[in-house]
Amino acid sequence: MSILTSLLKMRKKKELPIHQEELPDTVEELHSLSLEELKEKVKAEFGSTIDLSMDELKTEGKDALLLYLTTTVDTNLLKETILQSLNGKHDGLELTTEDDLKALCKEKFGGAGYQLIETFDDIITAMLYGNIIIVFKDMEKALSLFMPSNEDRAITEPSTQTVIRGPKDGFVESISTNVSLIRRRIKNRHLRFEKCIIGSETHTSVYIGYMEGISNEKIVQEVRKRLNSIKVHAIFESGNVEELIADKSATPFPLALNTERPDTVAANLLDGKIVILVDGTPFVLLVPAVLVDFFSIAEDYYQNYMMGSFLRIIRYLSFMIALLTPSLYVGILTFHHELLPTQLLLGIIAQREGVPFPAVIEVLIMEVTFEILREAGVRMPRAVGQTVSIVGALVIGQAAAEAGIISNIMVIIVAITAIANFVSPTYSFAAAARLLRFMLIIVSAILGLYGVLIVLVFIVAHLSSLRSFGVPYLSPVAPFIIEEQKDVFFRFPFWSMNQRPSYLKTGKPDKMPKTGSPSPPPIKGEGAN
Amino acid sequence: MKKITAIAILTLASFLLTGCWDQKELSKITVVTGMAVDKGENEKYVLAVEGINATELNKQTASGFAPSIVYETEGNSLSELTYKVNEGISRHLIYSHMRTLIIGEELAKEGIIDFIDFLERNREIRDDFNILVARGARGSDILRVTYQFQKSPSLKLHTQLDTMKKDWGGDPGVRMNDVIMAWTSSGRQPVMAAVSIQGDPEKGVSSDNMKKVTPDALVVLDSLAIFKKDRLAGYLSLEDSRNYLWIQDKIIKTSLTVKCAEDRYMGIRVYDTKTKIKGDMQGGQPKIDINIRAEAYVDGTQCNNQFDQAKTYKEYNHSAEKHLEKIISGTIKKVQNEYGTDIFGFGEVVQRRDYKNYKKVEHNWDEKFAEADVQVNTTVILRRTGIRTKSFLPEVK
């Protein structure tokens, strides 16, 4: 790991100065420009782009210029509102002073969310975000109306993190829809969203959401600080942000929880976590994230707590299976024959009779084959899906065993590893197990189970060194917090989980008053006896 | 940067230069499940190992060849022989799954202590395998007799001895540990189960033997071999072997046949039993008290007595107690008179309870054992009578 860090540092030294968009030296006020000049300037700014529209119109006997980008605004809405209410109308309003403009806006667009802007740069920016700008002749301020085109995907069931019982709506690419999905769940005046713009070229909106009074103010401040210090040219996905604000980059483990589910976000917000939404992606980030977050899902809390606990244990077990099975297979078969029951050992020997490769090569062949198939399954065009599954079943399954390249038991090992890996509710966490698995296989082939143990010790040491926004990654297991164990390996009944995670240092430690277990009302007359 | 490179090189070196030394690919090994040691003609020992042909033990891949290979080689130390066996066997042998060690009768009579050290010291061989004496046969012959179910003779014996011990108690359940403990403890002599070949050993070597309903040759649990130090002193019957286990409090379950009338018997199944031994020196002579308490149910009766009356139980309890006392003290007397070797560990008991006096007779304990006054007290409680209370016998018209 240290080699990796040093390599990364070396990169940094050679780094070239990044291209920064040059900001204009002086702020150009509107009143210094005539409509014609303005038109020329806007044209110069956008060049020959086809979606620039600069129409002239006349309202209340005054010339005006209507500026927008046809591809970012809702043109139907534009026709309905602006053209009907403004163009060529004579409602007897004077338009000479700023107050007149305000009065006009009040009358025509009251409640439509208009803004008055006064610099040239603001006009350009507003246009890019989907605003319509109306500049009146000889006026110091221009009117900006937010009318973005609604070319969004409908809210659908999330494609990852699916549940059997629970809400079926998922986030979409539009950030405002996503915020509304969260608001719909938390009708609370303390829910705050803050905006910042990241990406010197893309100007992507990134929102920070938190519960005022519950979330730790210091962590919120830290999130703000880290987001504001991002100096990249483009942000397309929350993964970009995640990588840039993580406490440590030399780790296969994700340091922020990503989810497509609004209910997960709402529950975590109320626990005191902070949500980061990025425009243009349905995946939102939750920080600070700890290891146990990646093993609990929303559905744990929607079904019976016994079942919830059972499934959670299954998830931990699956992670261990996905991580360790192939390396244990290699280790036991090449070093520790005495660990197997005699009958099983003889069975495996009989199956491996005639397999030309050592166990480690066999495992690597199959694991790599599986990874190839899996990648093909994700990337292929939907139309050829069936081909991949048929060929995959042949390659992984029978054929390989029958051809004598691998043994039958290897098919079981690959299958259980693969299936166990899919159990992980968060894709990015399962990826860690996928990577470490190969490391374990190699070490196990050299040193046997002793090597597996060494790597596991390293992994645990590494995990305990991780922090997510200052919160130890292994909390509440290490540091061990006894009260938090209600929601780690088991999911205790809902009424008993009345406290927020203490490692988040929230403003309100109690979620709800201690009510105790629900019980039937006392039977009448029982007290009398 | 230099420091990091140095650390990286050291880490890689420690991995790449140290690993793999005990790596053995499965396709290059043969599992040894049984071992037989006999007296050699020219040199001290003949070691026979039974290497399993795993393909034959797997139902899907079996094709009717011999389930195992037995190869013999002669030499003076077992440790060398275990590697020298490769003069005849192609693959690397692993001994970690060894289940059975068979000692030839001839060698057992001359003493076995010399090679046991190797078995205990070796890092591969476990210390909990069965240790047996081949009665009237060479140990390697026992390893050659095939069998239908487990196919390999050593695996067959391992399973069989276990089953026997759980159901009836004929196998003393002696592992190498027990033998070594008996040797190192003052006041106890080791025992081992003895096996013999029933039928023709010559015909047992072929896999054809497995194809017959009644095999031409079969390895049977024969008796209990008793030792004086490391030398075979003689054999006790299987019945005595069970009684030996009873005195050792090692019976899990067993059955007794008790006489209930003239030429009529009753079978009782003992399912819970506890033995306590007390002993001390009285006037220079050991005095041993054995208390056996057993719970049992009636498993079949040839007598007409009815089990709906309490007195029937009392009667039967009493006759079972007498019977048990008789067979137990019979076994002890036989050992005292014929062999004079303390296989029961009475010496250990006396040593614990009467240390000073024991120390005086420790050097000739076995003689004292032969003179010991052994009292056997038994309590048998019949709890149940199967799924019938009244027998149909009196109603037979």
Structural summary, described in words:
The complex is a heterodimer of chains A (529) and B (397). By secondary structure, chain A is an alpha+beta fold. Chain A has three domains: 30-146, no CATH class; 175-289, no CATH class; 305-471, no CATH class. Chain A is built from 17 helices and twelve strands. Chain A has helices spanning 2-14, 35-46, 75-85, 98-109, 120-128, 175-185, 217-228, 238-245, 262-271, 305-334, 342-352, 359-379, 385-396, 398-402, 408-423, 427-447, 449-465, and strands at 52-59, 62-69, 114-117, 131-136, 142-146, 191-198, 204-211, 257-259, 274-278, 284-287, 467-468, 471-472. In chain A, the strands form three sheets. A five-stranded antiparallel β-sheet of chain A has the order 1-2-4-5-3, covered by helices on one side. In chain A, helix 10 (305-334) packs parallel to helix 16 (427-447). By secondary structure, chain B is α/β, with parallel strands linked by helices. Chain B has two domains: 26-236, no CATH class; 238-397, GMP Synthetase, Chain A, domain 3 (2-Layer Sandwich). In chain B, 34% of the residues lie in helices and 31% in strands. Chain B has helices at residues 2-16, 54-57, 78-84, 105-110, 113-121, 139-142, 153-167, 176-184, 201-204, 238-247, 310-339, 346-353, 355-361, 365-371; strands at residues 29-39, 45-52, 68-75, 92-94, 100-104, 130-134, 191-199, 217-228, 231-236, 254-261, 264-282, 285-301, 373-384. Chain B is globular, with a radius of gyration of 26 Å. Chains A and B meet through helix 1, helix 11 and helix 16 of A and helix 1, strand 1 and helix 2 of B.
